[in-house]
Write a structure and sequence with these properties.
Elements: E1 3-7, E2 11-16, E3 21-25, E4 31-36, E5 48-53, E6 59-64, E7 67-68, E8 78-88, E9 93-109, E10 115-119, E11 127-130, E12 134-138, E13 144-149, E14 154-159, H1 169-177, H2 182-193, E15 205-210, E16 216-220, E17 230-234, E18 240-245, E19 250-255, E20 259-265, E21 271-277
Antiparallel strand pairs: 1-2, 2-3, 3-4, 5-6, 6-8, 7-8, 8-9, 9-10, 11-12, 12-13, 13-14, 15-16, 16-17, 17-18, 19-20, 20-21
Length: 281
């Protein structure tokens, strides 16, 4: 299971990456539908690397596997691009959105001659979200999000205040010295084995959500080992409303009209569901 979302009112959509399907369940746990997620126009069809579904939409947005723009080599950052497409709730192609930055990766050479391509912990990649009539896409290369209709026509851009995204020696050294555990520690170990390459800049953001009023929530990049957990909010019309801070270890799952819900992972690795109320000014 890769990810799950609320969908079709009180149903649950579960993405099964390796099976290339999304399974739909009722609130009682009964499976009622299986949606294929392969891109049907190619032979063989391309499979999605990531999916997102909106409770207010009848469609899935998919990003495929990334393809390197340069020859594979050690000690450098390799940018990958990937196709992006929209599927309806039955898995039929609605619109092709072209190619976007999939991830910035690096190569790790094994002792037996093989290699692994891994996403960089500081790498930029496309983030996306959707509503019943709009698609939000941004690569994190700057604090800017493009908004499209479901026919693939750009209707506006959302821009936040400029940030200094430069990767400095101070940032790199802090990452080397950070007290990490679990997946974050393993990611750093891979990075060191791969020659410790760094991208030219950190992402402006790494994820998105849309609330019922059409406001866009954008997760700001947090260097591994730090406790900052900020989300920026844009009004539907494009106005930047500011930032909200959440506790370290909190993963924001969904935003309601006056609440947010997510999973908090404590220092012992225990997950708990948390709900925060919101008072809007």
């Amino acid at each position: 299971m890769e990810r799950f979302w609320r969908c079709d009112g009180d149903h649950l959509c579960v993405s099964e990456y390796w099976n290339r399907v999304v399974k739909v369940f009722t609130a009682a746990g009964e499976q009622i539908r299986i949606v294929p997620t392969l891109e049907p126009n190619l032979d063989p069809p391309r499979r999605p690397y990531r999916l997102v579904f909106s409770p207010e939409s009848d469609a899935f947005l998919a990003v495929g596997w990334g393809i390197e723009e340069v020859e594979r080599q050690e000690g450098v950052i390799m940018r990958t691009v990937a196709p992006t497409w929209l599927l309806d709730k039955n898995g039929n192609l609605v619109q092709d959105f072209g190619e976007y930055l999939s991830a910035e990766r690096f190569l790790i050479r094994g002792s037996t001659g093989g290699f692994t391509i891994a996403p960089h912990p500081f790498g930029r990649a496309v983030s996306f979200a959707l509503t019943h009539d709009e698609i939000f896409l941004g690569t994190g290369e700057k604090f800017e999000v493009s908004v499209f209709d479901q026919q693939g026509v750009m209707v506006r851009k959302l821009r936040g205040p400029p940030d200094d995204l430069e990767v400095t020696d101070e940032l790199t050294n802090a990452y080397r010295a950070a007290d990490l555990s679990g997946d974050a520690e393993e990611d750093r170990r891979f990075w060191e084995r791969g020659g410790s390459p760094m991208p030219e800049a950190v992402p402006a953001f790494t994820d998105m959500r849309v609330d019922p009023e059409g406001n866009l929530w954008v997760e700001r990049f947090t260097p591994p080992g730090t406790t900052e957990n900020r989300w920026a909010v844009f009004a539907r019309a494009g106005e930047f409303l500011g930032h909200l801070e959440f506790p370290a270890g909190f993963f924001l799952s969904e935003v309601g009209s006056d609440w947010v819900i997510g999973i908090h992972t404590d220092d012992l690795g225990v997950d708990r569901v948390q709900v925060f109320g919101m008072q809007k000014g």
